[in-house]
Amino acid sequence: MSSTPVLALHGICKHFGAVQALTDIELEIHAGEVVALVGDNGAGKSTLVKAITGVGPADAGVIEWRGRPVRIQRPRDAQELGIAGVYQDLALCENLDVVGNLFLGHEITRAGVLDEIAMERQALELEPLATLTKHPPNVRMPVATLSAGQRQSVAIGRAILSRPDLLVLDEPTAALGIEQTAQFLDLIERLRDRGTAIMLISHNLGDVKAVADQAAVLRHGRNNGFFDVLSTPYEQIVSSITGATDNAVTQRATKAWEDML
Amino acid sequence: MKGADAPGDPEGAKAAGRSTGGPLAAARQSGSPADPGRAGLRGYVRSLGPRLRSGRLGAIPVVVSLLVTWIVFQSLNHNFLSPRNLSDICVDIVGPGLIAVGIVFVLLLGEVDLSVGSVSGLGAALFAVMFVNDSEPEWLAIMAALLSGAAIGTLQGFLFARVGVPAFVVTLAGLLAWNGLMLYVLGASGTIDLGDRGLVAELSDRYFHSAALAYGLAAVGTGTFFVQSYRDNRARYRAGMAALPMWEIAERTAGIAVPSFAAAWVLDDFRGVPLALLVFLAFVVSLDLLLRRTTYGRRIFAIGGDVEAARRSGINVAWTRVSAFAVSGTLAAIGGLFLASRVASVGQTSGSATLLIDAIAAAVIGGVSLFGGRGTTWSALLGILVIQSIASGMVLIGVQTAVQYMVTGGVLLGAVILDSLSRRSQKVHGRA
Fold first, then answer.
1. How confident is the prediction along chain B (432 residues), in pLDDT tens digits per residue?
2. Which residue in B38, B52, B300, B374 is deepest, having the highest Cβ count within 10 Å?
3. pTM for this one?
């Protein structure tokens, strides 16, 4: 693991009106590492994701990309750095077909004209899309006709298509079936082995346990502990999420971690 | 009656526009890929039932309304389908048709531009005052008209996309303001006669009476479509992707060939191919390619489908919106020049409110969704053909304007109801 994290967040704050959604968030993620971001509803997970992907820029704080401070104000900024995201609401255009959605924002063109054949060929090679119905998968269906699981596959395919250095996944398995989830977790591991940094948000601690190296807990928009997933008992993470550990011991542990950063 | 080209073309859109995600794209999916070998014409007809029920109508409603309109008026007055009348309709559709093509860009975003009628009047008035009253060179006057349209569109787009005023309100203000500016520009002169010299005067009065040209165009159009589909299909086949069976390409080519050659025959029988119609078709074809085959067009459809998804994919939503309004304004000005050319004058009533309603109605009747994200420039052509056919038929059988408005209003309402129902039905069937 390299010493410089791919992405480091320092003191990230975000508020919506009077509501302070994120306060002084600290987070680091290295290449080839899967960090799970866990927390109860309203803990600020999705808000943090949106700050990282430029969809909802942070108000204050420093974002460092490979050790360099960067500004992420628009989705394009994040894309250019090499950050791709799958959002909880998927953010697909229902009137466009699968290929149109996969390549939206970075279409392949030849002499200024969309190269549909090249795009379709690449789409067919995308692994998550193998779950799209029969063989060969029909990538010319409008997204409106797809099931929730298929849409989720499209959203995941869309994110990994750009070969990002950091992949941010917000509840990516919510709509997937058991087998699809297993395939998805395999995919995560392969991406990690290729050196992709992955930030995984999930309510499913089983998934977190299965693939994550680190778990960062958010509670009420603040850091509430970092855990090594392998060595930390399940109960401890849960109690950190629910707030049963709002006590001096965890606070000390969190502080110690922050000092290490 | 080259306009009848249109019924065939949605077939073309079907073949080429797989990715626009319109109802046509959906329609293509229903029959062919699952069962390519045996579908045939019968398969196509059989697939109609489920398609209609699930709300994927494509160009069917507008083609049906066009045929009904023609049959009704032909039975009331046998001069309706005469080459002369059809040729006249073909020239009449150009002005409002161009405005409708421009408004398609805005409707695809899910917005509306109410100012196009006034902008077209203002463009024509600027042209007339500069060219006729001030004796400026014609090209300068034309440029001024076009630039005014583009500038107005850009301004309105900016107020909508960057400042955040609803497009409806911005362009409603524009509807009034630009009409006022037009009256101001016309000033005391009232009506300005364009006379019969110059390019603009010639726009709607020039016909190319050559059978070779008429049939040649039909052949080139059909041939280009066929070759393009064939090559596209070959490339897909070679890439190991699902390709269309040969008969389907042949079927679609026939769907274009029949109306094209019929149009060529009708036009050639009267005064030949009108220049205005050629210009109109050039706009329809090139802007159709822009919308369906380029990144820019893809962005417009994406924004019409889901603004937030488009924004998250890194599309510059504000700029794309501004540009669509600029296209709408520019085409309104061009349409205004054609309208002025048609009546050889510009006056206080140029750019009236009925023009706006005709343009929007044409797009909607042609199948552009008011909810955004669905439609083509061919929709504008087909729709305006229906509207002008009604107008022309009404004049022919001597019905007053009052009735004509009511009928057109009814057709528009029908189209919007169909749009809403098809959307609801598509929701039920998980397609919207």
1. 333 333 333 333 333 333 333 333 333 333 333 333 344 555 556 656 655 555 556 777 888 889 999 999 999 999 999 999 999 999 999 999 999 999 999 999 999 999 999 999 999 999 999 999 899 999 999 999 999 999 999 999 999 999 999 999 999 999 999 999 999 999 877 889 988 888 888 888 889 988 899 999 999 999 999 998 898 888 888 877 777 778 888 888 888 899 899 999 999 999 899 999 999 999 999 999 999 999 999 999 999 999 999 999 999 999 999 999 999 999 999 999 999 999 888 988 888 888 998 999 999 989 898 889 999 999 999 999 999 999 999 988 888 888 888 888 888 888 888 888 877 777 666 554
2. B374
3. 0.86
How far is Cα A99 from Cα B405, in angstroms, rounded to an integer? 43
Domain assignment present for residue A244? The answer is yes
Is residue A198 a contact partner of residue A169, using CB atoms and an 8 Å limit? yes
User: In this structure, are A194 and A159 located in the same domain?
Assistant: no
Joined tokens for residue A167? 């992949």
Domain encompassing residue A203: 32-58+71-82+165-261
Count of CB pairs separated by less than 8 Å, A with B: 123
A105 Cβ under 8 Å from any chain B Cβ: yes
Alpha carbon of A48: minimum distance to chain B alpha carbons (Å): 15
Nearest chain B residue to A107 by CA: give it: B295
The interface pTM score, or ipTM, of the predicted complex is 0.86
Q: The CATH number of the domain where A179 resides is what?
A: 3.40.50.300
Whether B428 and chain A come into contact, CB under 8 Å, resolves to no
Facing B431 at nearest CB: one of A85, A100, A144: A144
Shared domain check, A206 and A170:
yes
Q: Are β-strands A222-228 and A214-219 bridged in parallel, bridged antiparallel, or unpaired?
A: antiparallel
How far apart, in whole angstroms, are the C-alpha atoms of residue B387 and residue B374? Answer: 20
Burial B87-125 (b: 16+ CB within 10 A, else e): bbbbbbbbbbbbbbbbbbbbbbbbbbbbbbbbbbbbbbb
Residue ending a domain, among A163, A185, A207, is: A163
Total count of domains within chain A: 2
Q: Which residues of A touch B373 (CB under 8 A)?
A: 93, 95
